[in-house]
């Protein structure tokens, strides 16, 4: 059983997947930092010095000064963090789109499907599905 597990784990696709997950996690942290530390402060300032991470809906009648206070009492709907998460997702999705698009440009184009063949008698091109040659009328 240990030998089977080793064969499974050392397969190329499993190793590729593991590397992809690890790089994806690291990339996610970089994007989260980009959104939280670089993009959101200027965006919040542009729309009136709003810090998205502190936006919430108070679900009780008691006033709380911060999101942390409201969460500690379990009465906060934190839509600001949701906005940050959506922006993180969009940036990651766009970056992956750009990466896949550029990798696809590096890969060779698939061969065009074969639509003609040469007649064995006259060597003229004819459609693959032809039963007779249109040039010499021999059966193909």
Descriptive account of the structure:
This protein has 140 residues and is mainly alpha-helical. It has 2 domains: 2-107, Non-ribosomal Peptide Synthetase Peptidyl Carrier Protein, Chain A (Orthogonal Bundle), CATH 1.10.1200; 112-140, no CATH class. The protein contains 4 helices and 4 strands. The protein has helices at residues 2-9, 12-46, 67-72, 79-106; strands at residues 57-58, 76-77, 116-118, 125-127. A two-stranded antiparallel ribbon has the order 1-2. The protein starts with a helix and ends in a 13-residue tail after the last strand.
Categorize the overall geometry: elongated
User: What is the level-2 CATH architecture name of the largest domain?
Assistant: Orthogonal Bundle
User: Radius of gyration over alpha carbons?
Assistant: 30 Å
Task: Kindly report the name of the CATH homologous superfamily of the largest domain.
Answer: Large-conductance mechanosensitive channel, MscL, domain 1
**Count of DSSP helices?**
4
Count structural domains.
2
Q: Give unreliable regions as ranges.
A: none
Describe the strand arrangement of the main beta sheet, using strand numbers. Answer: 1-2
CATH class of the largest domain: Mainly Alpha
The H-and-E topology, N to C, reads as HHEHEHEE
For the termini, the CA-CA separation is 56 Å
- Taking all residues together, what is the mean pLDDT? 81
Total strands: the figure is 4
Work out the helicity level: 55-70%
Structural class: mainly alpha
CATH level 3 topology of the largest domain: Non-ribosomal Peptide Synthetase Peptidyl Carrier Protein, Chain A
Largest sheet: 2 strands, antiparallel
Q: What is the strand content? A: 5-15%
């Amino acid at each position: 059983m240990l030998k089977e597990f080793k064969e499974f784990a050392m397969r190329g696709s499993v190793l590729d997947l593991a590397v992809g997950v690890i790089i994806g996690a690291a990339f996610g942290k970089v994007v989260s930092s980009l959104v939280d530390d670089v993009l959101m402060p200027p965006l919040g300032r542009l729309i009136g010095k709003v810090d998205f991470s502190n936006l919430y809906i108070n679900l009780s009648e008691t006033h709380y000064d911060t999101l942390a206070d409201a969460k500690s009492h379990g009465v906060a709907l934190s839509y600001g963090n949701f906005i940050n998460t959506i922006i993180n997702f969009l940036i990651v999705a766009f970056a992956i789109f750009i990466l896949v698009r550029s990798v696809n440009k590096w890969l060779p184009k698939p061969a065009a499907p074969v639509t003609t063949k040469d007649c064995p008698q006259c060597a003229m091109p004819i459609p693959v599905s032809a039963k007779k040659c249109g040039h010499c009328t021999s059966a193909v």
